[in-house]
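In response to reviewer comment 3 from the previous cycle, which asked for concrete evidence that the modeling workflow produces usable outputs, we include below a single protein chain processed end to end. The sequence was submitted unchanged, and the resulting structure tokens are shown without manual editing.
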Amino acid sequence: MKLGYIGLGKMGFNMVERLIEKGHEVVATNRSSESVDKIAGKGAEPAYALGELVQKLGPAPRLIWLMVPHKAVDDVLAELTPLLQNGDTIIDGGNSPYLETIRRSNELAEKNINFLDVGVSGGPAGARNGACLMIGGNRNDFEKYQELFKDLSVENQAGESGYGYMGTHGAGHFVKMVHNGIEYGMMQAIAEGFEVMKRAGEDQNNKDFNLDLQEITKVYNNGSVIESRLVGWLQNAFSKHGPDLSNISGEVSHSGEGQWTVEAAERLNVPVEIIEKSLQFRKDSQGNPSYTGQVVSALRNEFGGHDVEKK
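The workflow returned the following structure tokens.
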């Protein structure tokens, strides 16, 4: 399959490498030419402007994947869509708010341009080695590009691929949004539990415990009920930085998806106390660092490559 790819950040660059390995022809562009030059060295066909990218894709129908920050999507579409024709397809693989995705799908439909929204989970490592994909849009469009999604997704030991059709336009981004809200709560619970264990010696009843937090992550991640990638990533972080995480910031950033989940839940009249409190913790952590915050930050660094070092 031949496709255009716009956005060569941590996720996009790795995803294009995987596509090339899977035998796809990729015409790639990015705001900075340095990334374009670099991906060209991996086998992609470089394009240094959107017009050049569309021209190199040839006649319609064309497929173009966007992997840009959600605030940049409208600007990219405003420049890109006048260059496209009936039957072309755009995929938004970033973390866009699902209501904006629904709006964009309607606007593109008026121009006879197909649109799919794909929530991508797994971080840069998943983008490179196989991600989890949550896809929204018309089912016919999903089926048309199903082999592409299969090539981008992880496969488990039972041979099941980590992608699926979630529903109509916006459903892919909606499901990914809720995924990230759940992620907030899971990370918060792990972090709070490890702060309790870190401070166990402050209680006279526990003063001789001298708990080895790194050993605990190893045990937790081998057959326990809470065995998970998150606990494994915390084990990795302790190996790199030590259990004190002394060079990791206790102030935790958030990128929006948790907030969007809380707002969607409010519209649906669904209580999401755990997600809401974990979001509030991140907001309150600014100027108020803690060990719980350091654990959450360390996890964000492990799976997403976020910059979390103390400034």
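Residues 214 and 238 are 6 Å apart (CA to CA). We consider this sufficient to address the reviewer's concern, and the full set will be provided in the supplementary archive.
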